[in-house]
Each structure stands twice: as structure tokens, then as C-alpha cells.
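Example 3.2
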Amino acid sequence: MNASFWTDVKMIVTLCKPILRLLGLADRNGAMMGLIYACIRDMSKEIDNIGQMIDIDPIKLDEIKICCTHKFSMIQSPLHATTFVLHQQWTSNGQDINHELNSAWMTTITRYANGIDALENALLDEFYVYREHASDMFCIPRAKDYDRVKYPIKWWKTFGTATPNLAKLAIRVLSQGTSASSCERNWSTFSLIHTKRRNRLSPNHVEKLVFLHTNLRLLKKIKERRYCLLEITMEMIDNEEDEERLLILQKEQESIQIEETNDLNSMIAYLQDNSEVEEEDYDNVDMDGHETNCD
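Structure, written as C-alpha cells:
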């Protein structure tokens, strides 16, 4: 019944909005590293703006920012900053490259070149062409269209022909996802295979079954739905309600669970049938390896 309690609750909910926006982005399939890095940068700015609009102690506001920055800095790598540099949506807006971004970019190309000086020099030269728009492909109006720059992988495949080495690197790093959904699906597959009835399976056998099950499901999806490039944009996250996002995730999880159960049962039935055939063949062989006459 205390009015100050609800004032604090409103303040907390307002401050958590940019944080939840970042978590919602990282929880979706198709979220790329470039968007994550940009969202982390925007999160600090939005928290500052919110702090100016609401009545909050500046010391507490700094503590919140330090806490958020510390948590996300634990999982950041040079690849996150590199994808931000190679994302045309930010570069087209005149985004300056500071020392942190430049250091991450140099670290990435050094590891990517792996001691090949010619490749490293080519990447540096092509990166200059990309940043300065020194190629006709980067200057055409379509290359600057927002509806195209928000899909970086498609953009590099279309307009990156003038810088082939840089385009190859950009497509590779920009394709790196940040969602843990694939790991969670792998864990759910483990739980389906290693049950109370099959708890005597050795770790090697469980890993092989999970490997086979995952790749069979992947091949099945490719045959049924074909290869589909999934790229999440910031607009999708901004325009999507939290309830809608949670419902979509729940439906996806339920459908995945049903598919995994059906595929696993089919695979187990197939393995059992083959094992029965092998046992019959084994019964018809004597100790010396010669076939016996069952008649």
C-alpha cells in the first residue's frame, strides 16, 4: 500500500526496457553478432536518457550501467566488434571507428589470415575501399537503400563483388548467431535419448546417437523446407510485443519437441530392427565364424 513502492517499481520497469530489448534479440534465431554489439551500445545511451527523464540517484544509475556493461563484456569477443564494423547499416550512417573497434578488427584479420601476409594486406586494402565507398558497387543507390542494408549477409553477397576477400570474411562472421537455441535443442535431444529406460548407455553411444539424430533432422528440414536464410532485424524486435514473442518461442519449442520425439522413435525403431537382423545372422554363425545349417 506504500506509494513509494510503486514508484520504484515503475522506475525499475522503465530502466529494464532497453535491457529486455537486448535479451529479446539474443533469444531469437537469426540474431547476428553485429546487432548484439550495436544493441549493447544503444542500451547504455538509452539508460542515460531514461535517467534524465525520471527521478533517480545518479550514483544508482551509474551502478546499473556498470553492472550491465560488466555482464555483457564477459561474453564479448573481437568478432562482435568486427561484425559491427562490417554491418552496412551502421557504416552507412557515418559510424566512426574508434580504437576499440579498430583493435578488434585488426585482431580478427590477423587470426583470419593466419600468417598469410598477402591475404592480410588485401583485407586492409579492401576494407579501406569499403569504408570510403571507393567502389562503384558501394555507391549505387540500391546499395544505400535501408531495406537492403538491414540484411547484411544478403547485402555483401549482392554488392561485395568489388572486395571478394572482405566479402568472404564478412559473410562468415556476420553469419555467426548469438542465440543459445541450438544448444538448448541439443540438450533436449540428450534428455530424450538418455532416459531412465536407457540410462546404461555409455557417453560415447549417447554422443553418437545425438549426433546422428541432430544431423538426420537437419537433412530432413533441408529436404522439406529447403535452405532458408534467417536474419533478424532491429525492426522485428521493436515492433514485436513481449507476449507475442513468448508465444512464438513456446510454439516453436513445442513443435521442436514433437518433431524430436517422432524422429527419435523412428531412429530407435530402425536401430532395433537392424540389431534383430544382426542377432539372427549371428545365431547362424558358429564359434569359428562358419555359417551353420539351420535345417
